[in-house]
Amino acid sequence: MKNFTTVLKIAPAFLLASTVMHAQTKDSITKEKKIEEVVLIGYGAKKKSDLTGSVTAVSEKDFNKGAIVSADQLINGKAPGVRITSDGGAPDSKPNIRIRGGASLTANNNPLIVIDGVPLDSSNPAGVSNPLSLVNPNDIESFSILKDASATAIYGSRASNGVIIITTKKGSSGKMRINYSGNISIGKVTKTIDVMDGPTFEKFMREYNNKPEYIDMLGVKENGKQVMYNTNWQDAIFRTSVSTDHNLSIRSNLFKSIPARFSLGYNNTQGIVKTNDYDRYTASMKLTPTLFDNHLKIDINVKNIFSNKNTIDADGAIGAAITADPTKPIYNPDGSYYQSFNGYVMTGARNPVAILMQRTRPEKVQKFLGNIELDYKMHFLPDLRAVVNLGAESSYAKIREVYAENSLQSYRTVYQNSTAVGGVYNPGLNYGEEQNIFNKLLDAYLVYSKKYDDKFISKFDVQGGYSYQNFDNKGKKQFFNMDNPSGIREETPYNKYINDYRNVLNIQSFFGRANIDIKNKYLFTLSYRADGSSLFPTNKRWGHFPAAAFAWKLNDEKWMENSGFSELKLRLGWGKTGQQDITGSAGFYPYSPLYQIGDVRYFYFPRTILPDGTIIPELYTALAYNPYLTWEKTTTYNAGVDFSTKNRRISGSIEYYQRKTTDLLAQVSFPPGQMLSNEFIDNVGSLTNKGFEASFNVNPVKTQDLNWDLNANVAYNIGTVDDLRGRDKVGANESSLAFSGTGVILAYHAVGQQPYSAWVYQQAYDNDGRVVPGAFVDKNGDGIISDADKSFVPLRPKWTFGFGTSVNYKNFDLSASFRGQIGGKVYYAARVNRGFTEASNPVNSNSLYNVLNFYDGAADPRFKAKGDAEGLSDYNLHDATFLRCENITLGYKFDKLFKGTTLRVYGAVNNAFIITNNYVGQDPENFNAIDANFYPRPRIYTFGVNLDF
After folding, report:
1. Counting CB atoms within 10 angstroms of each CB, which of 119, 542, 590, 817 has the fewest?
2. Looking at per-residue confidence, does 27 or 95 come out higher?
3. Spatial distance between the Cα atoms of 121 and 113, rounded to a whole number of angstroms
4. Measuring CA to CA, which residue among 60, 351, 343, 352 is closest to residue 179?
């Protein structure tokens, strides 16, 4: 075990008893008898009433409905303290999931995802933006979200940001049942950037920039005449999307002894940006046999996924559609794509339609996820169980980026002595990659559980075991270069140290847990986990993560007999978790001194020896490393109350927590010569998050024909950077404002401030409250506007919420879900780039650029020059408060078509509407708080059927 490579926590997710399933994806027979919900926790399951930690369960009846492509969309807005923000409306858009605000600065802040007992790799396969799109949402039965350290510490080093356990649907012990569900969806763009049309732009140029040479650049010359077009470039790249989803599942009891479920799925989702297409094929099998008189339980899960996505240059196309001159055409008279040229030099905004239509980039992924779990109850001692879980996650990805003939993006100018003498197109392959991932999992542990009647200790169980997970990621890339004087694309010479890659990460763990139930009222949980990770040096490789929790069932006290509560439970928890996932910022070997073939600035070593003995030196570059890295550690305190009335009409929970992270892992600057790089990862200080959460469920009406349910949740979280070990702030590189200058960023993590706060000037206003362009408040009164006058403005919202309702009347059902946030800020980049009157003018070219529509208030015409529209001004920050209607669904069930057959038809609308605080941009919901070339979230109308027989 001495030479193992790195760490991962593991978490076999087992059985979670499902509650009544919503008819839209109904895949099992509704239970008539009310049973207590069982919730998955790490390495086991518990009755909800026996939980001591902070755990939220979301079952199928509570899922979001309608057009669902990925698993994260099912629970968005459904769990308090869980904020899910996609990067936009693309079919495979990346979800940014934060539970209670995130515990780190630069290290991974996403929660651990566990599917049927297999913890997923935190690194996505090549070409995959959303790993949760690689599981069929129709196969999912429930989510269990572990939030506080007393619940997550059993997962150790990957649980600082919470754990989401996903359980898929099971087979049946009765007769065979077949289920088909299918839908067709229509998607539309609801809002675009308010730029000018052709006639308005011509009017604007004549009024604000009326130079003859500029006016002559409007339109195009055809037959010696200046012809003005009216091109809506945004309409030209967007489309009405048509998508379909089909699922077939079979539930049966094979040989009358093996509950089984088999499913097939096909999803075709069109993005609302042209050519952005996504296809997914899924197949799954779940077998849950029991042998040896129910002493051996076996859980077998197999999932196969194939996806094919045409990835587009969305940022380039959307950005060009905003800036392109609307008086220009899409096509030339000969049918080719129009583009401005100055001699042999391409000028102006690139034709956004050509960007989409003249390049293909199919990104194909085949993925396997499977495990077998053996749970053996000893014949000689039935209270003792041995559990072994073997799992594998593997994928093969292939990417090919190809330019079409005469692709404008592949055009390069040919230079001789810095003079343009011609041009050349470079059709064909421009980038290639193949990747293989194979991850292995082993969990082995013992569980001893004992119940006593009429004893002081009514129940206890202890467990302990070992976990091993290995991640192996290898691949090969093809690189090409067109930026040379000849303009002709050349493949970069193959070098195995650059073109080939392989990264290995290994995590090994020992863990234990004890649950003690005293008099069926006082519940104690103790857990401990030791993790070893190859990301740290041997003397700091192991992290130790204890936790403890207590729960008191107040409703079982005699003095609470007439309280009206069926459940009233107080919970207290404390625990430590760790963080080691820094591969995204520091690679897989951050503490090791390594070299790669590089440039002449550093060392070289004799390498190649020819047959005649000649030694050819190769140049190597020393890579940055930090031999002092250690675990990031997070300590959490949690207090909560769970309640439910005796008639179960009202239930819910209230939580308060405080979480402190020390030895923060962050990308920071170093003095020259220290780390072989100006920036690298280091342990830099501490961060505190605190807040509260509340969730409520109300059933105001329940009769034989009518049932009405309401649910709501709200969460408040505020984070503060406590210490950065001598630094006053650390840059948040994900907030880059490249359009404002090289290296310019908007947000920082600063001591005493909320993480990810904008560092900006305070805009000056006149006595009438009107903005004064280019003028800022001199906060320190020294007569100079400098960095000393900047202040920090928090960007992340402190308040998030969600609520929903469902009504069932006889065979009709109506449901709606809403979510939103209060506060936070969003940076509207279009007003910085296109919101000053000179933004239309050519820059070293013969082309004009579109601007925001000054005539209808999209921008203020008093902003004339680029300097007036200072990028780092709080004038560009807008209130990010919003309320979004996530979905509305109306359905009807035909239950008497044929014997044993039900048919449900439904209509749904997703992203039905959004209410903002007068946000001037496209959509205030943006994870990095920068609204720039945003891929719009479409409004989607869905018609679907569900047939069960």
Report:
1. 542
2. 95
3. 8
4. 60
Q: What is the secondary structure of 537-575 as a DSSP string? A: -GGG-EEEEEEEEEEEEGGGSGGGTTSSEEEEEEEEEEE
The C-alpha angle with vertex 758 and arms to 756 and 763, in degrees rounded to 5, equals 165
385 closest CA partner among 448, 327, 462 = 448
C-alpha to C-alpha distance for 410 and 346, rounded to whole angstroms: 11
Enter the tokens of residue 916: 């903002």
Predicted confidence at residue 26, as pLDDT, reads: 36
What gap in Å lies between CA 276 and CA 395, rounded to an integer? 22
Q: Quick one: 752 exposed, middle or buried, by C-beta within 10 A (0-12, 13-18, 19+)?
A: exposed
The residue behind tokens 């099998």 is: 285
- Residue 512 tokens read as 């234990």
One DSSP character per residue, 809-834 reads ETTEEEEEEEEEEES-EEEEHHHHHH
Q: Which residues pair with 634 in a beta bridge?
A: 577, 661
Confidence of residue 27 (pLDDT cuts 50, 70, 90): very low
Which letter, b or e, does each residue of 892-902 get, where b requires 16 or more Cβ atoms within 10 Å of its Cβ? ebeeeeeeeeb
pLDDT at position 8: 29
- The total of other beta-carbon atoms located within 10 Å of residue 334's CB is 5
Residue 840's SS3 state is: helix
Per the CB < 8 A criterion, the answer to whether 188 and 910 are in contact is no
Query: Which pair of tokens denotes residue 524?
Result: 């104690």
Q: What is the pLDDT of residues 139-192, one digit of tens each?
A: 999 999 998 888 888 887 778 888 999 999 988 877 899 999 999 999 999 999
pLDDT band at 127 (very low <50, low <70, confident <90, very high): confident
DSSP character at residue 842: -
Separation CA 836–CA 860 (nearest Å): 7
Question: Strand pairing of 112-115 and 163-168?
Answer: parallel
Per-residue model confidence as pLDDT tens digits over 54-78: 899 898 888 998 889 999 999 999 9
Average pLDDT across the chain, whole number: 88
